[in-house]
Amino acid sequence: HQQGEVRPATYAVFEQWIRGDFEKRGKSPRHLMGILKMIIETLGSQVTYSHLAHRMGEVTLPTFLDYCDHLERLDLVFSLQAFDQNRQIGFPKKARKFHFWDPFILDTVQKWLAREGFLSQTIDDSLKAESIVAAHFKSRMPTYYFKAKGEVDVVAVEKGRVRFVEVKWTSQLRPWNIAELKKQKDAIILTRQPAGGKVEGIPALFLPSFLVTS
After folding, report:
1. Please, where are the H alpha helices in 116-177?
2. DSSP 8-class letter at 117
């Protein structure tokens, strides 16, 4: 599109692909939309499968897990486990954070659910930014989130290096927002500020440039 916008027909093609893939496996479009709604409404938050299934109320936990598993196998969504600092792996039984692999797919699903009356909210840009960063690391290396007294959006582990990454897609950065990050040795902040710099001694990098160069 000459204005740089995505054509409605393009969204429709991908919506039909997602819906059609589930339908040909005998799965319910209504259940699919309900599960996608739960994932979008808790995007970037700490949740468990059982909590989401209970909140949805229409499907059993095994059914919810089955649909989520297929969404992950289609590379539509993924989840981050909480990070175990001692063993440098995830906690599979603790709460996890869901993200979409691609912001275009998230937009496609959002428009689809809104049209069907399943979703009224729009997705905050800061959540989209967090998902983009999580997907960037997840596609390359083991990736988690960290929760102690505070929280860190992304923990990336590569060859023994553990990097703590906080995404702050805001106009101002406040020290109290990065209290947990300040406790970590290898930490960065990814921000919308092109100038970058440091916050409380932590490197603040321009998010788009970081994604291109790393």
Report:
1. 125-138
2. T
Residue type, 70: H
Helix (H, G, I), strand (E, B) or coil at 69: helix
pLDDT higher than threshold 90 for residue 171: no
Query: Which residue is listed with tokens 């209504």?
Result: 30
Per-residue model confidence (pLDDT) at position 1:
46
Q: How many residues in the chain?
A: 214
How big is the CA angle at 11 (ends 37 and 63), to the nearest 5 degrees? 30
Contacts of 142 (CB under 8 A, 6+ apart): 89, 90, 156, 157, 158
pLDDT exceeds 60 at position 2: no
Q: What angle is formed at CA 209 by the lines to CA 204 and CA 210, rounded to 5 degrees?
A: 60
Which token pair is 65?
């897990």
Q: What's 212's DSSP letter?
A: H
- Please state, in angstroms and rounded to a whole number, the distance separating the CA atoms of residues 49 and 77: 14
Tell me the pTM.
0.92
